[in-house]
Predict the structure of 4-diphosphocytidyl-2-C-methyl-D-erythritol kinase.
Amino acid sequence: MRTISVKAPAKINLTLDVLGKRTDGYHEVEMVMTTVDLSDRLELTVLDTDEIRIQSEHAYVPNDHRNLAYRAAELLRKRFNIKQGVEIVLDKQIPVAAGLAGGSSDAAATLRGMNELFDLGLSLEELAELGAAVGSDVSFCVMGGTAIARGRGEQLETIPSPPPCYVVLAKPKIGVSTADVYRAVEMEKIVHPNTEAMVTAIRDRDFDGICSHLGNALEAVTLELHPEVRQIKETMLHCGADGVLMSGSGPTVFALIEHEQKAHRVYNGLKGFCPEVFVVRILGKKH
Ligand code: ATP
């Protein structure tokens, strides 16, 4: 029986800009995303039957075709005429419906894992292209590292990773539907982040510049729906965070912090208040 284990890391948005609404229903976006070392773990096993089996103990994660890992497996089986099935055991560590691309990263890990398990010989770029059919963030999750994502998120330009720092992630009890947040976007009210300035700060390894150019056009929309997100931001700043922002469509808020001691102060300041709080690092290299 062939089994492999694959890591599926979360992402955060250093910027997220909404440029307009497209005729296909998606929004045109421009985002700087980076991978952090908070990961789900997937165990993939080849089955003799032709089924795709998902196993997860998480109450909010579907075990059927609605799971993005299932869709990724189905896509590869159909496209490459794979006769055998696969069992995917999901050990969820990334908070669900959190703005951290947990489901997309599981789909990306499934693509990478099945590529190896079934000797498909596809490059990461080819897998990223296939992944776009499963979800807009899947392409980025296949590649990992740091990138500017455009289009609906699937057009990637890899850039260097930010200088090492600590990232505190805090997710309030609520989950947020990405579709609901995009539906509530009013284009004329959008506050656009300065993506170019963020990319320059990253290339210059200018930590203060990165912190001052954090910006997310969806933040105001989610804050309106869920005021507790603002409270987390304020607590993080009060505890000494260098920069704070909501990731993706939320509700997870992250803090960037240069010094370890301060990172633990921010962590301790939020622990009693948020059910899910983590201190992680930016993953500088491809996984
Ligand atoms: P993004 O940042 O890409 O918008 P997210 O972090 O906000 O993603 P996910 O954790 O990916 O959101 O989950 C969103 C919904 O997708 C969940 O409510 C869940 O029902 C469904 N889902 C499907 N597959 C998965 C998976 N493998 N892990 C978690 N949720 C999944």
About this structure: The chain has two domains: 3-159, 166-281. The chain has a mean pLDDT of 95. The longest strand covers residues 27-47. The CA atoms of residues 7 and 276 lie 20 Å apart.
